[in-house]
Amino acid sequence: MKHTLLAASLFAMLALPVQATDAVIGQTTEYLGYNGVPEACVRITPLPSAEYDADDLTDEAALCDLDAYSPDVALCPKIWSTSAAIVFYDISEGKFKGDRTGFQTTICAGGKIAKYVAKDQIARLKFSINQATTSAVFTPSSLLYYHFSRYFGFGTTVPVAVWRSIDKSVLLNEVALGGKALTAVQDNLAMNHAAWNTLVAAIAQPESYEIPGNYGTAADFLTSDGDAAYGKSLTGAAVSTAPK
What we know:
Blueprint: H1 2-14, E1 26-32, E2 38-44, H2 54-65, E3 73-77, E4 85-90, H3 100-106, H4 114-117, E5 120-126, H5 140-152, E6 161-167, H6 168-182, H7 190-204, E7 228-235
């Protein structure tokens, strides 16, 4: 009975126009960016009677314990497939140990090759970007998929997901501008380039995102104070069945 009622509520919600939001409730870990901008990682409050295993809770904690400003963590733009995301790499070992800037300026341009230079690919942070030229990415869906899959006991593995924000200037200068440049004039990366281009433009001028049609607003990925960008954070090895 509880499953039937919850499913009906979910389908009713999906039938209505929806927007992403930075008003998220749960266990929160707070950070400060280089510029003193508050950032947060939120482990969404578990659904009552949902069954989460120990690995779920461990992955949630690891995602929110990730310090994006550690010298042993490098940030690269995802320059493959169609969506825009920050890829976090563990560089605590190897040639670029502790050399965040060196890794980012030298290795990120290699795309997927970066994971073979780093110790590990540890997480991704994706953003809701929905424009006529981009693929459809609505990050709250992954948060819902994760929690509802544990509630309904899905047989298919759905990756752990948490809500996370990051200083928009760090996103712009360390990741997005590189993503835009590295994907330019590549037909096979047209949607990926469009996503980075849209993100760069919206950080500078949020109104640029608000084109006619039901594509949402910059509030889908920029916090209400305008200082940070937010989305879903997934473990690095996670493969989701959600839209890219």
